[in-house]
Each structure stands twice: as C-alpha cells, then as structure tokens.
Amino acid sequence: MFGQFDVTLHRSSLKTTRLLRLFIIIMYARVGMKIEKTPLLGLTIDELKSVAAEVGLPAFAAKQMASWLYQKGVTSIDEMTNISLAARQRLCQHFEVGRRDPLLRQQSVDGTAKYLFPTSDGHRVEAVFIPDEERGTICVSCQVGCKMACRFCMTGRQGFQGQLTPTDILNQIYSLPERERLTNIVFMGQGEPLDNLDAILRATQLLMADYGWAWSPKRITVSTVGLRKGLKRFLDESPCHLAISLHNPFHNERAAMMPAERSYQLDEMLELLRQYDWTGQRRLSFEYIVFGGQNDTDRHARELVRLLSPLECRVNLIRWHAIPAAPSSMPSLSSAAPPSHSYEVPSLSHATPSLSPAAVVPDGSSSGLPLSDAVTFHEAVPARMVAFRDYLTRHGVRCTIRASRGQDIDAACGLLNTKEQNKD
Ligand code: SF4
Question: How far apart are CA 369 and CA 119, in angstroms?
Fold first, then answer.
C-alpha cells in the first residue's frame, strides 16, 4: 500500500529504530529482564514513529498505534485494523502490545477490588480499585517490594525485588476490568515512586499526553516518603498532585517508623516544598496513618500545626489496621503505648491545659527516642482520630479522615501479594 515511500522511510529511519530498540533492551536489562518482543504500551509518539519506520509504515501510523494503545485500549496488534494486515504481521514479529490480565481478583463487600497483576519479568504486583459514589480510584504499584522498609508496612517487609517498567505500570491501569469507571489514579501502591522516577514520569506523561489517554494531571496523585534524590525533579517536571507520607512530625519518631527520614529529614523536605506554589491546580497533601497513642497525641497535633500551617495543603488521616505478625516481628516505637482496646480517649479540645504553646518543642525532636528503639504499633481509637482532625482543622490545617476500604480483602499495601508468595 505504501510502496516506494515505505522503503525510503524504512531506510532513512533504520538508524533511529536500531537506537530505539537498543534503548528499550538496555532499559529492560537494567531491571534484570530479557525481552522476546518489545512492548508498545509505554512508548512515546516519537518512539512509535521509529517503530512505524521499522515495519515500513509512514510516520502518521504512529498516531494510529497510539490511539489503539492508549485511547481504545487494545490488547493485541491484530486489533489495529486501520493498519494493513501485512504491516501488522511485520509488527507482530518484533513487537507486542504488552497487556497482561490480572492473575487474581478479590472483591470486598464494600465494592473495593484488589488485583494481582503479573509483571514483564514474572513477578506479581497489587493494584486496588476503590469505587466511591461518582468516583473510581485505582491505587497503582510502581515496584516489586520496596527498599524503604517502613516498619508498619507489609510491602516494606518484603524487601526490594525489582523495578516496574512503564509497561507494567500502565498495564495495571489499562488491564483493570473497571478502567472505564476510573476518575482518579493514585501512585500509592507497592513501592516508592521517586525510587523509580523515570518510569513514573514516563507513565504519567503517556496518561496525560494528547495522543495518550489525555488524562488530567488533576486526577493523578503521586505519593512518596520523600527522597532527596527525586523530589525536586518530580516537582520541576511533573504537574501531578503530590502526597507526602508523613505519619509523624518529629524526626526521631519518624525515623524509627520510616528509615527514609534518616537520609532526608522532614524539615529539609518542607523547606523545599515551601519553594513551590500550591495555590494553583497542583495539590499538596500529607498522608498520616494514625497509630493509637503513638502519633495522635496533643504533642503531635501541635507540631503538625506548627509545621504545616504555613503551607497550602491538606492532611489525610488514615486508620491503621494490624498486619499479620506485626508486633512480634517489628522493632517497637514505644513499649509504653497502650493497646487500642484499653486506650482512654483523651480530648484535643483547645481548652485542654496541655495545649499551651510552651509545650511545643521548637526543634521538632521532642521524643528523644533513639532510632534503634523497637516499635509496636497500635490501632487508633476512632473518637481520638476525630478529635485529632478537629484540632488540626480548628488551627487552620485542612484535615479529613479517610474511610477504611476493603478490610475484608487484604486491601492494605502488600498483604495479598505476600499471602500469594507464601503459598508458592
Ligand atoms: S509504606 Fe510505601 S514506601 Fe514505605 S515500605 Fe511500604 S510501600 Fe515502601
């Protein structure tokens, strides 16, 4: 159909195409996997032009392929019916779409669905679909396991097993059975997004591109514990919302829960965040998992207000649910912390005497807990969470309590994958 034009284009683009394939092979080699065929899902429009050239198609075929991949969501090259049969056959020799169906689905009584997706290199990662009235949110993973070793997290206890490619990341979204119901995408699943930033930036770029899914950055949130290497780059290069996993405003206590705090302190991170404008479309939020008696005291509330009130931001309080064998196998933050069933709910009323400004420790290091202290976590008392939220709100920090979803299906990060691995 394209005759001589195809041949000329093919020759002139051969060098570019070889470079592209070399780039993809190197990219996959870096994460330790061999590829039989190159996945198209995850390629930019320029890279698709090189693919088109390799099989003797004109440049405009790249836009056709992008439309099939990112807008129509095809699972095979055969479905790209406005590309000639001969060209599709040539494409199939070296390329594939790269879609993989979920291996496992768990359905919660509240509508939340958890999926286990296979990755290109034979691992498995979790993605969670959370319906909520008009909204449909997917929580996406970016790594297999995680290096961050947060003490309260099952994924952190798995250790790091590998990076996800842009194809693996996009596949969780495109192969989600509820894809048509999605309104929001959050990178809050397994792994630390800033530790796989190239893949995150590429995946989000493809979601937002006109030739991609044309998804609004206002509907994408990337969550991080905060890594020195990566946060500034993300802030400079991505228009997506940012969520910081905060969980404790005091350095020593946060470091005991989240080792990442030791290499990039909250103070420094907040200083960087204050240099950016959060009054426009891009939103800044702080995730705060509430542990009963450990990070929900008056002292923590006051310090959060001190740290966050200068920022245009929101705090999301999240109820923590015990993970299997957590207390016995984890280091412990405070052995004196009471279990939730016997915890007396204190008041966070502004009339409470202990809330005098003098009680605030200005350097944010009030606990004095050594970093090596063991940590046992406790579930929060709901009434205490409400009081904590109300205190923050009264003092000018917008705060909401996130509803717990999917408790009956191991929806917390890493639980399903760990259970499946334990069966193997
Ligand atoms: S909470 Fe997030 S960053 Fe921390 S270990 Fe778990 S997956 Fe990694």
Answer: 40
The alpha carbon of 150 and the centre of ligand 1 are apart by a number of angstroms equal to 5
Mean pLDDT of 28-47: 79
CATH code of the region 3-96: 1.10.150.530
- Ligand 1 midpoint to CA 356 (Å): 35
Q: Please identify every residue annotated as catalytic.
A: 126, 413
Please work out whether the CB of residue 146 comes within 6 Å of at least one atom of ligand 1.
yes
* Residue 196 CB less than 6 A away from ligand 1: no
Least confident range from 47-56, 97-106, 272-281, 323-332: namely 323-332
- SS3 assignment, position 157: helix
Which CATH superfamily is 104-344+355-423 part of?
Aldolase class I (3.20.20.70)
Residue 382 tokens, joined: 């709901």
In the chain, which segments carry CATH 1.10.150.530? 3-96
The 10s digit of each residue's pLDDT in 317-333 is 999 887 765 443 333 33
Instruction: Quickly count: other Cβ atoms within 10 Å of residue 271's Cβ.
Output: 10
Across residues 385-398, what is the average pLDDT? Answer: 97
| Nearest ligand 1 atom, CA 146 | 8
